[in-house]
Amino acid sequence: MSFFKKLKDRLFRSSDKIGEGLDALVGEGDPAAAEVAPSPPEFVAEKQQTPEPKAAPASTPRTAPVVPDMPDAGQRPGLLGRMLGRSDAPRRVLDDAMLESLEELLIQADMGVETAVRVTANIAEGRFGKRISTPELREALAAEVARIMTPVARPMPLYPTKPQVVLVVGVNGSGKTTTIGKLASQFKAAGKSVVIAAGDTFRAAAVEQLQIWGARAGVPVLTAPEGSDPASLAFDALTKARVDGADLLMIDTAGRLQNRQDLMEELAKIVRVIRKVDPTAPHNTLLVLDATTGQNALLQVEIFRKIADVSGLVMTKLDGTAKGGVLVALADKFGLPIHAIGVGEQIDDLAPFDPEDFARALVGSGD
Ligand SMILES: Nc1nc2c(ncn2[C@@H]2O[C@H](COP(=O)(O)OP(=O)(O)OP(=O)(O)O)[C@@H](O)[C@H]2O)c(=O)[nH]1
To answer: Region (Disordered) spans which residues (predicted)?
Structure first.
């Protein structure tokens, strides 16, 4: 199964929400405004009555165009459009009411108010006052989402440094352990030697889970007695990984945000200690976020950026959540690289982040 197919199948809740919402916007809007495009002769007459596009309202600043202008809905569709049956698609004038509903739809899909307003404003640009169909709106939205996501879609960078130290942070249950297992397995398959350090020494279950993932991935997992100092484990793990000539050391960490001060000190100490072995470490600090937490993910980025020098994000549990839009808000607000996304609990359910695929899956486009 292609990853797009998997993503589309599994992002179904966000896609359904946005996809159905777009249909409703055009089809169930003002019945006078939503209408099937007429056949060519009437079309010309109709066009003469079409009012001039209104100026953009103040609530949504409609500035420079960022997506290519769509063909004027009042013009006869081209051959391709007619072949695709576009002339039969219901259309509705893109007016303030419709833009407001679109904004609302995007907010409900967890895109966040600021991002939803910006996306809506950009969609309005060049289209305001024109009659638009659902496929056109879907296409415009996908293009806008892809435009925001493209600059942040970057795989985790690999450096010549051996071992490259990857610190993995995030709140409990966000999917750190699973992500480390999946990444370790992928790096191993790519010919890299990987070592994992089970740095959440306070939770025996977390250590056990990491050992299971390590065994699955065929990667050694270094552990320490329960309750022991994670920084000391990180130091030993880095020393060993160095001696063994490992390419990558992935360090799991605790994620107890309840006591932020403790967590901050713990992470700071890990960094201080591993720098005694390699002053350039850690080379990556991955923040793992759970997509199902929606807007709370934004808060987590803010907190972890203060605690640790976050270099990139991994978003897990995009399968089965209606909150996939939060990824757009994250990209728009922080611009941090999104290295990978998780769409399931299996070892191969982690993929590089592809902005086009994501955008199409999010708005419910077909393959
Ligand atoms: N559906 C789905 N579940 C996931 C995904 N990633 C992780 N999970 C599940 O989320 C739960 C928590 O994942 P963990 O990897 O244990 O999270 P953690 O951050 O290490 O949590 P602690 O061990 O409590 O610190 C587990 O049941 C995972 O199987 C994903 O992409 N999709």
So the answer is: 19-83
